[in-house]
What does this fold into?
Amino acid sequence: MIRELIQTFLSAVGVFYVLYMMGYASFLFLSVTVGSATLYGSKRRNHLKNELEGGHYVPVTIVVPAHNESVTIESSVRSLAMLDYQSYEIVVVDDGSSDDTSQILVDAFQMVRVDRPIWRRLRCQPAEAVYETWNSRVPITLIRKRNGGKADALNMGINASRYPYFLCMDADSVLQRDSLEKIVRPVLEDDRVVAVGGSVRPCNGAEIRDGAVVNYRMPRKLLPCMQVLEYDRSFLAARILFDQFNGSIIISGAFGLFKKSAVIDAGGYDATTVGEDMELVMRLHVFCREHSIPYRVRYATDAICWTQAPEKLGDLCKQRRRWHIGLYQSMTRHRNILFDLKYGMVGFISCLYFLLYELFSPYIEVFGVLVTALSWAVDFLNVPFMLLYMGVYVLYSSILSLTAFFARIHTVDLKLSLGDVCKAIGLCVVEVSCLRFILAWVRVTALGRGRGKKAVWGQIERKRINFDQGS
It folds into this structure.
């Protein structure tokens, strides 16, 4: 009797996993196909110069929140000061750093302390000191304040901004020279746009000179190599597909453009969550729908931000644990969106996808491993079929990951050596079959470890960005 119950249970679980994987495989195939087609279409338009003519600009404030970023802050700000754009400013917010982040900027750009009042339309910790410089190509403002977290620092940057749009980015990242121009294009095309997400790529292994990639190779270390493949699959897949129906509910905190008035009206960044980037985008959806405001949330595929991927497994686990806690907080705070007709495809597709294949997926994957072990223990496991099933899964996922990776490489005119191509193919299998399950376990334990913790900065080891300013 007990064996029959176990067999019935295992059969039901098997049916669930087949349906679950069919849904994920279909979504991944559709999203990679749409994403690749979109990238190639964008490349053709660029070659044909079928883009907006120059001379059209929207003034933008670049907000850079920083906490103990002395290693990367100078090179990051120097790269921002070299962008091909006519009207923008840079606002760096030092959120209570215990290192010399502020002093490095003051010395590097010959900044002067000023008595500048800041209207705090969004709640944030008060400013302790404000520095400005006009010796740079663009105006740069540095605000030093008490520690309040990344969201608090972003709110301060918005309060201090002078322009109607702001772009938030991390202090360990570098923009390509034309990235600001490209991320602004959706705003010029449609004045309903309230937010635009850019494409984020790991800069490990990239040599960037004067805001352009002059040499690109796969990172030497295996862990960031696998993250390169993962990033391309993630950004190429779901985000491009969701962009087709105004369904994007996450914009990376490393690179996103927002309409300032809309963000202020919606209440700014939430300093009580560790996933402030996703939470804000979901709140913009809610705010605009509740107030019947026509709006669009877009994704700019060719606006690229280069960021540092963690090179140590411990740092990667901390990052992914933080991301999963932020996902949980955003999904639970805005759970009313799910299946609500008022939110259209955002509630029926976007939120459902993030619920099933992002929030619940690590639990489903780990549960699947445990059920497989149980099946083997009671001698119900069809080993040849299981090996075939896993082989098909790994092969299918690897092919789609490589499709996304090589599509991205080709459409942004990067070149890879034969050794890097072989490395990408080999590590793609490892990423799908090994790293994915390690990170699944990390995400399973994330909520337990994160319970009761404040929204604080997530720190990982930084290295100097391979950025060279030409003469």
User: Anything to note?
Assistant: The longest strand covers residues 296-307. The CA atoms of residues 373 and 381 lie 9 Å apart. The chain has 14 helices and 13 strands. The first helix runs from residue 2 to 47.
